[in-house]
Design brief:
The complex is a heterodimer of chains A (185) and B (754). Chain A is an alpha+beta fold and 185 residues long. Chain A has one domain. Chain A contains 4 helices and 8 strands; from the N terminus they run βαββββαβαββα. In chain A, a hairpin with a 7-residue loop joins strand 7 and strand 8. The relative contact order of chain A is 0.19. Chain B folds into 5 domains: 140 residues, Alpha-Beta Plaits, CATH 3.30.70; 157 residues, Sulfite Reductase Hemoprotein, domain 1; 86 residues, Sulfite Reductase Hemoprotein, domain 2 (Alpha-Beta Complex), CATH 3.90.480.20; 178 residues, Sulfite Reductase Hemoprotein, domain 1, CATH 3.30.413.10; 136 residues, Four Helix Bundle (Hemerythrin (Met), subunit A). Helices cover 41% and strands 15% of the residues of chain B. Chain B has 25 helices and 22 strands. In chain B, the strands form 5 sheets. Chain B has a 5-stranded antiparallel beta sheet. In chain B, strand 6 and strand 7 form a beta hairpin. In chain B, helix 4 packs antiparallel against helix 5 and helix 21 packs antiparallel against helix 25. Chains A and B meet through helix 1, strand 2 and strand 3 of A and helix 4, strand 15, helix 13 and helix 15 of B.
Chain lengths: 185, 754
C-alpha cells in the first residue's frame, strides 16, 4: 500500500477499560523501558475531550492511541514514517498493533481486545483520497492481506465520507490476540 | 497504485503566487539545512517565522521520573540550537482576528489527522495549533493551508503575531463600530512588511470595539486599538484610541495612551511608524528586555509619542494605507438564514440540556433575531471529527462566520434564533453540546508541561481537574468568575487578568521537587483587562482544587451585592487570602503521600529536568530554606504595604525580599556575608551570577538583574505602578532562588555520590 500514514485498530471490550486514563502509566512505562523497540517520545492525554483519541503514545515513527468513541474504546497503531516497503505496509502496522496490544494486556490484564472487527484508516488524502474509486483500488490488497492473516473476512467502506478513507475488516468470530500473533504474515 | 501528483502540483493553481514562493523557499531551506549549508540559529529563526515551533523533549532528552534519558532519534543536523531534527514540534496557524471559514476548519482537521495527533488546539491568541508535527511535513501542511487562504507566516519568531479582536465585532450592541475591516487591513498590511522584519522581539496587536468590555484585551498588547468616534462638522468620524507598550509575560505592564484618536485613514501608517521605531530603537542584545514595553518605559511615553509622530511624517506614502477604506471586504458578513424568533414552546421542547447551553453559550446579536453561539472546547481542544462537524453546522446554518476566541472556544455568529435548538442538537451529537462557556468551569490553560519547553507545572492537568470540579458551581456570581492557569511565569494563559489565576512554579520540600502553583488574585478581565493581579503565595498542585473550592465558597458567602471577585479580594485583603493559601500549603512527607510529588495526569515523579536543569534529591539546606521563607514573607508584606497605599514602603520591602533571598544563597558560599546590601549583592554576584548558578535555562540572568537594578537605582519617587512591578520582580527573583536551591541540592547529592 502506497500511503504516508496508515492506522490499524482493534476494539477493546468497553467494560474492561472503564477509564482510559488507566493506560497513561502503562504508556509512560513503555517509553521508560523501550518496550516497543522504537523511539517513543511522550504521552498526550485528551480525556477531557469527548469522542477523542483519549491517550496517545507519541513516537517518532509510530503513534499508539487509546481512542474512545460512541462505538467504544479501541487501540490503534499509526505508522507515520520509516515505513516498510509498500507491499509490507499492512503487515508492518498489524505487527506493531499486536505488539502494543499484547503489552497493554500484559500490563493491564483486565483489558480484553476484540479481534472480530479491525479498522484500517489511510491517513493520506494525497495518495488515497476517500472515494469509492480508491476503496475499489485498495480492496484487493487489503482482502489478500487480511484473508491470509485472519481467515474469512468481509470488507466495508467506512461511513464517514468527510473523514479519511476507512476500511472495516469484519470477521465472524473474535480470536485471542495470541492466535492472531501466531498467524501474522 | 499509480503515483499521485504532489500537493505542490495539485494545489499550485489555488495558492497565491507570493505565498507559494515563500513555501518553496522554506522547503529549500530545509534541504539546505540538512546539507549543512544554513547555520542552525538562522534556520531556527527561519522556521519560527514560518510558524514551526519547538516542543518539549526536542532536545532529545526526556526525564522518565527516575533519570534523564536520551531519545534515540536519528543523527541528523539540528533544526536549531539544541533542537533535534526529527523531534516532533508544534505548528502554529495564524487565524487573523479569529475568523475561520468552514473550508479552512475542514482543512485544519485534515492536517491534524495526517500530520499531528488528531487534535486541534485553539490558543489564547485565536491561533490554532497542531502538536507533534515533523518538520519535513510542514511545507505540504503550509501549502494545504495556503490553498484555503491561510498562512502560518510570522506566527512565531520576532514578528507581528496574530492580530486579535473581539469576537463580537460587527454584531455587538456596545461597540462604537465594527473593527473587522481595520483589523483585517492591518493584519495583512503588516504581514511580511519590510518594516517588521528586523524587530528584536515579537509584537502583538489587538482590536476592541469598545472600552468597557473584556473582549479585545487591549491593555496588554504592544498596540491596542480601541474603536472611537468623533463628530466634526456634523459628520461622525471613525478612528481608534491607540495604546502601546502593554504586555503580560513575567512582569506585566499596562499599555499607555499613545493617541486618543487616530482617524481610520491613519491607522496603518501610525502602526507602521510604531513598528519602525520599535525595530530601530528596541533592545536587540538582551532578549528579556526586548519587548516594546521596555522601550516605552525606557523612553517614556511622551518621547516615544514624539518619535512615532516624527517617524510617521517621514514615511513614504503607500496606497495600501487607505485602499481598504474604499472597498472593505470584511465586516460585511451576512447571515445565511433569515432571522426568526425562537418560540418558548420550541425552546421548552428542546429540553434541559439545551436550556443550560442557551443560558451560558448564547448571546443576542445587535441584529434582531440572530445570536452568537459559543462552542465550549475543553482546554481549547477538539478532534478532527468534531472540527468537521462544526464546519458542517456552519455550512448549514450560518455560513463562514466561525471565530476562534481568546478563551479557547469556537463560536458561530449569525445563528437565526429559531435554529438554536438544531445547532445545539448537532453539536451535542459530536460531544460539543456542553454549556458553561465563559463561566468558572471554562478554565483557560496554556500547554504547560504537556508540550511546552518552558512549562514548569502541568497547567492543563490542573485545568482539566478544575474544569471537572467547577461544573457544579451554581451561585450566579461565582459562575461568572474567570480561572486561568499558566504553566510558568510567562502568562500564556493570561493568569494576570483572571479573577483566580495560577502560574506554575516548583518548590523543594523534604529534599524533593514538588509541583506548585502561585495563586494570583486582583486581576480584571473587564475593561479590556483593566487590572493585573499579584501572586499571593504558592500551594502544591494537588491542593489547588481545594484552595479554589475554599476561595469560591468564601467569595460566595461574603461578597457584598455587586461585588466581583476583585472587589471582594480587595475588601477582604491579601492577608486573609494569604492565610487561606497557607492553610493549603502543607506537603506531606513522600512516604505518607507520594501523589504530591507527581503532577496532574503524569505518573512520573515530578522533575523540572525536562526544562534543561538536572536535579536529584539531596540533603535539605535548612538555613537557605529559612532565608527563602523569610523572603516570601517580605514579598507578601510588600503587597500589603501597596494595598495600604504605601508605594515607597512596598518597593523598599520588595527589594529587601530580594536581598534576603540573595543573602540566604550567598551564605552557602560565603558564610560570613553580612546584611549590608552592598556586600550581599557583591557576594551574590560573585558566587551566583558570574558562575551562572542562578541562571534560568531560558532567560539566563534576567532575574538576577531585577536585584541588581533595584539595588543600583532605588526609585526616587515610588509610584504605585513602579512598586507593583518591583513586587512582581521580587516574586520572580524568589522563584529563581528556589530553583537555584534545587541546583545546590543536586550538586551536594552528586558530590556525595562521588
Amino acid at each position: 500500500m502506497k500511503a504516508r500514514r496508515i492506522e490499524l485498530s482493534l476494539p477493546i471490550e468497553a467494560e474492561t477499560l472503564p477509564d482510559p486514563e488507566a493506560v497513561v502509566p502503562v504508556f509512560h512505562a513503555f517509553i521508560r523501558d523501550g518496550a516497543l523497540g522504537e523511539v517513543l517520545v511522550d504521552v498526550a492525554r485528551y480525556g477531557h475531550v469527548k469522542n477523542a483519541p483519549a491517550v496517545v503514545l507519541v513516537g517518532h515513527a509510530s503513534d499508539y492511541v487509546i481512542e474512545v468513541t460512541p462505538e467504544g474504546p479501541r487501540l490503534a497503531a499509526v505508522r507515520k514514517r520509516g515505513a516498510a516497503p509498500d507491499d509490507r505496509r499492512l503487515a508492518d502496522v498489524a505487527g506493531r498493533l499486536l505488539t502494543a496490544a499484547r503489552l497493554v494486556q500484559a500490563a493491564l490484564p483486565q483489558i480484553r481486545f476484540r479481534t472480530d472487527e479491525l479498522r484500517l484508516r489511510v491517513l493520506d488524502r494525497l495518495n488515497a483520497p476517500n472515494s469509492a474509486e480508491t476503496y475499489q483500488r485498495l480492496v484487493d490488497e487489503v482482502l489478500a492481506f487480511a484473508g491470509g492473516w485472519l481467515g474469512e473476512v468481509a470488507l466495508e467502506h467506512g461511513p464517514d465520507a468527510a473523514g479519511p478513507l476507512e476500511i472495516r475488516i469484519r470477521r465472524a468470530h473474535s480470536d485471542p490476540l495470541e492466535a492472531l500473533w501466531a498467524r501474522l504474515p | 497504485m499509480a503515483a499521485h501528483p504532489s500537493w505542490k502540483e495539485q494545489l499550485g493553481p489555488r495558492i497565491r503566487e507570493d505565498w507559494s514562493r515563500e513555501i518553496d523557499v522554506f522547503e529549500t531551506q530545509l534541504e539546505l539545512r540538512q546539507l549543512g549549508k544554513i547555520e542552525e540559529k538562522l534556520f531556527a529563526e527561519t522556521r519560527l517565522r514560518r510558524g514551526a515551533y519547538g516542543q518539549r523533549y526536542d532536545n532529545g532528552q526526556r526525564h522518565d521520573g527516575q533519570s534523564p534519558q536520551t531519545l534515540a532519534f536519528p543523527a541528523r543536523p539540528t533544526k536549531g540550537p539544541g533542537t533535534v531534527w526529527d523531534a516532533p514540534g508544534m505548528m502554529r496557524i495564524k487565524v487573523p482576528y479569529g475568523k475561520l471559514s468552514a473550508e479552512q476548519l475542514e482543512t485544519m482537521a485534515e492536517l491534524a489527522e495526517e500530520y499531528s495527533d488528531g487534535i486541534l488546539h485553539v490558543t489564547t491568541r485565536q491561533d490554532v495549533q497542531l502538536h507533534f508535527v515533523h518538520i519535513e511535513d510542514t511545507p505540504d501542511l503550509m501549502r494545504r493551508l495556503a490553498a484555503v487562504g491561510v498562512t502560518t507566516r510570522e506566527a512565531c519568531g520576532n514578528s507581528v503575531r496574530n492580530v486579535t479582536q473581539c469576537t463580537s465585532a460587527g454584531v455587538c450592541s456596545g461597540e462604537a463600530f465594527d473593527t473587522t475591516p481595520y483589523a483585517h487591513a492591518l493584519a495583512f498590511f503588516l504581514l511580511g512588511h519590510d518594516d517588521v522584519q528586523d524587530m528584536g522581539r515579537k509584537f502583538k496587536v489587538a482590536f476592541s470595539g469598545c472600552r468597557q468590555s473584556a473582549c479585545g484585551l487591549t491593555s496588554f498588547h504592544d498596540i491596542g486599538a480601541i474603536a472611537a468616534t468623533r463628530v466634526s462638522s456634523g459628520t461622525v468620524l471613525r478612528g481608534f484610541q491607540l495604546v502601546v507598550g502593554g504586555g503580560l509575560g513575567a512582569v506585566p505592564q499596562a499599555a499607555q495612551l499613545l493617541e486618543d484618536f487616530v482617524p481610520v485613514a491613519e491607522l496603518l501608517p501610525v502602526s507602521q511608524a510604531i513598528c519602525r521605531v520599535f525595530a530601530r530603537l528596541g533592545e536587540r542584545e538582551n532578549r528579556q528586555r526586548a519587548r516594546l514595553k521596555f522601550l516605552v518605559k525606557r523612553l517614556g511615553i511622551d518621547e516615544f509619542r514624539r518619535l512615532v509622530r516624527e517617524e510617521r511624517q517621514e514615511l513614504r506614502p503607500d496606497p495600501r494605507w487607505t485602499a481598504f477604506l474604499e472597498n472593505p471586504s470584511d465586516g460585511d458578513e451576512r447571515p445565511l438564514r433569515a432571522a426568526a424568533a425562537l418560540s418558548a414552546q420550541v425552546a421548552d421542547a428542546a429540553g434541559a440540556e439545551f436550556a443550560r447551553w442557551r443560558a451560558d453559550n448564547v448571546r443576542a446579536q445587535k441584529q434582531a433575531g440572530y445570536s452568537i453561539a459559543t462552542v465550549s472546547l475543553p482546554l481549547g481542544d477538539l478532534t478532527c471529527h468534531q472540527a468537521r462537524a462544526v464546519a458542517s453546522i456552519a455550512r448549514q446554518f450560518t455560513g463562514d462566520t466561525l471565530r476562534t476566541t481568546v478563551d479557547q472556544n469556537l463560536l458561530f455568529r449569525w445563528v437565526s434564533d429559531a435554529d438554536l435548538p438544531a445547532v445545539h442538537a448537532a453539536l451535542a451529537q459530536v460531544g460539543l453540546g456542553d454549556g458553561g462557556a465563559g463561566t468558572i468551569a471554562d478554565v483557560t490553560s496554556c500547554p504547560g508541561t504537556d508540550t511546552c519547553k518552558l512549562g514548569i507545572s502541568s497547567s492543563r492537568g490542573l485545568s482539566a481537574e478544575l474544569r471537572r470540579r467547577l461544573r457544579v458551581v451554581e451561585a450566579p456570581a461565582a459562575r461568572e468568575l474567570h480561572v486561568k492557569c499558566s504553566g510558568c511565569y510567562n502568562s500564556c494563559a493570561q493568569h494576570h487578568v483572571a479573577d483566580i489565576g495560577f502560574l506554575g512554579v516548583s518548590r523543594v520540600v523534604n529534599g524533593r521537587r514538588v509541583p506548585h502553583f502561585q495563586l494570583v488574585v486582583g486581576g480584571q478581565w473587564t475593561e479590556n483587562a483593566g487590572a493585573f493581579g499579584l501572586a499571593i503565595g504558592a500551594v502544591p498542585s494537588k491542593n489547588v482544587p481545594k484552595l479554589v473550592d475554599a476561595l469560591v465558597a468564601r467569595f460566595t458567602a461574603e461578597r457584598a451585592p455587586g461585588d466581583g471577585f476583585r472587589a471582594w479580594a480587595l475588601r477582604v485583603g491579601k492577608k486573609e487570602i494569604r492565610a487561606m493559601v497557607d492553610a493549603h500549603a502543607h506537603v506531606p512527607p513522600y512516604d505518607a503521600d507520594p501523589s504530591y510529588y507527581a503532577d496532574f495526569g503524569d505518573p512520573r515523579e515530578y522533575t523540572i529536568g525536562d526544562i534543561g536543569e538536572g536535579e536529584c534529591a539531596g540533603a535539605v539546606v535548612s538555613y537557605l530554606e529559612m532565608g527563602l521563607a523569610a523572603s516570601e514573607r517580605e514579598v507578601f508584606e510588600a503587597q500589603l504595604l501597596l494595598d495600604q497605599g504605601d508605594a515607597a514602603g512596598a518597593a523598599g520591602r520588595a527589594l529587601s525580599a530580594m536581598l534576603q533571598a540573595a543573602r540566604a544563597l550567598a551564605r552557602e558560599k560565603s558564610p560570613n556575608v553580612s546584611e549590608a546590601p552592598d556586600e550581599v549583592v557583591r557576594e551574590f554576584r560573585a558566587h551566583f551570577y558570574e558562575t551562572k548558578l542562578f541562571f534560568d535555562p531560558f532567560v539566563g540572568g534576567k532575574f538576577a538583574h531585577y536585584l541588581f537594578n533595584a539595588h543600583a537605582e532605588p526609585p526616587k519617587v515610588a509610584t504605585r505602578d513602579a512598586a507593583h512591578q518591583r513586587i512582581e520582580e521580587a516574586q520572580l527573583f524568589l522563584d529563581a532562588a528556589h530553583a537555584c536551591h534545587a541546583k545546590l541540592l543536586a550538586q551536594a547529592s552528586n558530590t556525595a555520590a562521588e
